[in-house]
């Protein structure tokens, strides 16, 4: 087997390895980019479903399946990224308001929601947490009860992509490495034998 590989390496011209390396590198970059763009589209679908009260679970499952089976689909990038990267603001607000309604009189909750909506417009409260804490404070200051804390597992998610995956990006990346090694071996063997490369 080693003899056959050595013979193949010696018989194949250098430009073939260069061309194959170039093509596989371009395909790798394209496939990695497509994996990432698909992840971004699916992540945006999760946020849209959360905002519109749609099927968040189906959108999360689609995103989870894509991230777990494709490389270059990490949800968070860099050290300053939000942890966990998927935080469903509107789901959190709905769950918190349901918990407050269950713990208190409907009229008190409505009064608190109206007060805080007038005091903190949606354009000011980007995350929504300040409005939720305003409602909680209003209810407590007017004789209401503290609602149970909403478990973070209901609105915070993180999925980790594999380092390598058996998809177009993974296989083309593997071929890129193989052709690079063949190209390097061809140059090294030609220098050792004192042959011209082209």
What does this structure look like?
The chain is an all-alpha fold and 198 residues long. It folds into two domains: 113 residues; 66 residues, no CATH class. Helix content is 66%, strand content 2%. The mean pLDDT is 84.
Order of helices and strands: HHHEHHHEH
* Total number of beta strands: 2
Per DSSP, the total helix count is: 7
Mean pLDDT: 84
How would you describe the shape? Answer: rod-shaped
**Domains counted in the coordinates: how many?**
2
Major β-sheet, in short?
2 strands, antiparallel
Helix content range? 55-70%
Q: How much of the polypeptide forms β-strand, as a percent range?
A: under 5%
Counting helices, strands and paired strands, the structural category is mainly alpha
Strand order within the widest sheet?
1-2
Radius of gyration: 28 Å
Gap from first CA to last CA:
26 Å
Unreliable stretches, pLDDT < 50, 5 or more residues?
A: none
Explain the layout of strands and helices.
Layout: H1 2-11, H2 14-52, H3 56-69, E1 86-87, H4 89-103, H5 106-119, H6 129-141, E2 156-157, H7 168-193
Antiparallel strand pairs: 1-2
Helix pairs in contact: 2-3, 2-7, 5-6
